[in-house]
Amino acid sequence: MHYENTHAFARQLDRDDSLRSFREQFIFPQHNGENVLYFCGNSLGLQPKTIRHALLHELDQWATHGVEGHFRGELPWMYYHKFLTDQSARLVGALPQEVVVMNTLTVNLHLMMVSFYRPTPERYKIIMEAGAFPSDQYAVESQVRWHGYDPATAIVELAPRAGEDTLRTDDILQVIEKEGGATALVMLGGVNYYTGQLYDMEKIAAAAQRSGSFAGFDLAHAAGNAVLKLHDWNVDFAVWCSYKYLNSGPGGPSGAFVHERHGDNAALPRFAGWWGHDESVRFQMKKGFKPMRGAAGWQISNAQIFGFAAHKASLDIFDAAGMDRLRAKSLQLTGFLEHILDEINSARNLFRIITPRNPDERGCQISLLTDQRGKTLFDYLAENGAIADWREPNVIRFAPVPLYNSFEDVYRLGKLIADFN
Question: What's the pTM value of the predicted model, to 2 decimals?
Answer without folding.
Answer: 0.97
